[in-house]
Every structure is written in C-alpha cells, then in structure tokens.
Amino acid sequence: MNSPLADAVATLLREVGEKTILPRFGALADSDIETKSGPTDFVTVADREAEQWLTPRLRRLVDCPVIGEEACAENPAIRDAVAAPRAWTVDPLDGTSNFVKGNGRFCSMIALLEYGVPVASWIWVPLTETLYMATAGDGAMLVTPASRKKLQAGQGAMDLAKMAGGGNALGISEPRRSHVRDALRQLPGRTFPGSSGILGADIASGKQHFLFHGSCTPWDHAPVDLLCREAGAHAAMVPDAAPFSADRNEPFLITTTPDDWQRVRAHVWGDADK
After folding, report:
1. Domain ranges, residue 243
2. Is residue 155 included in any domain, yes or no?
3. Which of residues 150, 174, 203 is at a domain's end?
C-alpha cells in the first residue's frame, strides 16, 4: 500500500485538486458548464482540465492506455482498451452535478486495471484532503493529513428496512427498468449521494450498506469495486453474480456482506424473466 506508484498517484490527485478543481468550486461561470447525455449530465471546465492534466502524467508512471470519462465522451472507442494488459481509468470529477450546485460531495478517482480487473484504486476528496486507496490483496486504507488507518466495511444490516445506501435504474431497459425503480423507491434508507466514489467510500468505511447502479462504466466503478472489496464488502455484477470487470456495462451491486447482496438483488432485480 505504501508503494512508490501508490504515493505518486496520490500526489497527482492532490495536485490536480489544488490546481484545477478547488479553484473552480463555487466559482463556475455559466460558460464553464455544459451537458452531455441529458440535462442533468453535467461536464465542467474543471472536469476537462483535470483529466487533460492527469492523462499524460499517469502514462509517465505506467505507459498504458488511459480511459478517461471525458475523453470517452468525445471518442467512445477509447473505452475498448479496458481489456488491455494494463490500463488506467480516470474520473476527474465524480459528482459533477454536486460540484455545479455547490455541494461538497465530489471526488476524483483513478484505477489501474489488468485485463479489465482493478488492481489498484484511489479516491481523493479534495475538500477534506481525504484519500481512500486500495491495492488488490493488500486491503483498503483511509489517509488523512493526521492519520492512516485500514478500512473495514460494516457487518451488514441483515434487513432491507435497515439498509442505507443509494441506487438507480439508469441504463436498464423496460419493462425491468420500472420494476427496479419501484423496488429502489421502497427501500427506506435509499439516499441520493450523487457520487459513486463518495458512496463507495462510505460503504468501505462502514457508514453505508449498498450501492446499486443500473449500468457500469470503467471510471465510475473500477475504483469503487476494488476499494469496497478490499475493505471486506461484497461486489458483483447483478445478472450473473460474476466479479466486476471493466469491459461489462450491466447493473452492478455492492453491499457490506454476501447475504445482504442476495437480499438486495432479490428485492431490486426480481425474477430473471422480467
């Protein structure tokens, strides 16, 4: 966990936060904000500048493809590199909608993949100078200016009514989409964090119980998958319970325990024929 590579990536995240992201927080002009796939899918000048700054520097650390969210929005073919022997993923500003609204629940995320499987991940929360990081087989860590400690997910809620977390049905086709949306609405502890990375960090820290997303992206889910699993949580693709792989885009579910994973899947996903 204290490898030169882990420290170098952490340094890059701190620098890009200081140089590019924090100076824009609460100071965006209307011309700094655009939309991509829909009216609430924001991209800002901070997203683009941060990714452009990070991409060449990550290549200097490990010379392999860089699969960045904003680059893929411009050229979707970049995503084809997820199954390469090694590849970086970059979400320069996860929680852009929060960022635009002045909500501090946003972060920057990086993962290193091997054949589509995350082997190292970093989630940086610049406002609090908090780093969540994980290495395959070496656990998950929380690093603050004052301390370093190993992360441990909670013991599980064992009851849907007691579970706290977030979920959406984005990317799921009808008629299953309506079933999933209605099932999620029935969960009393469902919240809307607006950031995969923030919710994943909360699960890895034992503060939340579940994340259900209707579709996967390498930049949103590779860092979160590894962090949560290394903290002891259970993560898998919803249709077949297979481990996360960045070349898949089906629904994805993380819970604190395997039993809770089965409970949430049964409630939200339902019968395979839907």
Report:
1. 160-268
2. no
3. 150
Q: What is the DSSP string of 106-118?
A: -EEEEEEEETTEE
Residues 135 and 175 in one domain: no
pLDDT in single tens digits along all 274 residues of the chain: 568 999 999 999 999 999 999 999 999 888 888 887 676 778 899 999 999 999 999 999 999 999 999 999 999 999 999 999 999 999 999 999 999 999 999 999 999 999 999 999 999 999 999 999 999 999 999 999 999 999 999 888 889 999 999 999 999 999 999 999 999 999 999 999 999 999 999 999 999 999 999 999 999 999 999 999 999 999 999 999 999 999 999 999 999 999 999 999 999 998 644 4
What's the rounded Cα separation, in Å, for the pair 179 and 52? 39
Answer with the one of 110, 128, 150 that is the final residue of a domain. 150
pTM of the predicted structure, to 2 decimals? 0.95
Instruction: Confirm if 170 and 180 have CB atoms less than 8 A apart.
Output: no
Strands (DSSP E) contained in 208-271 are 210-213, 234-237, 252-255
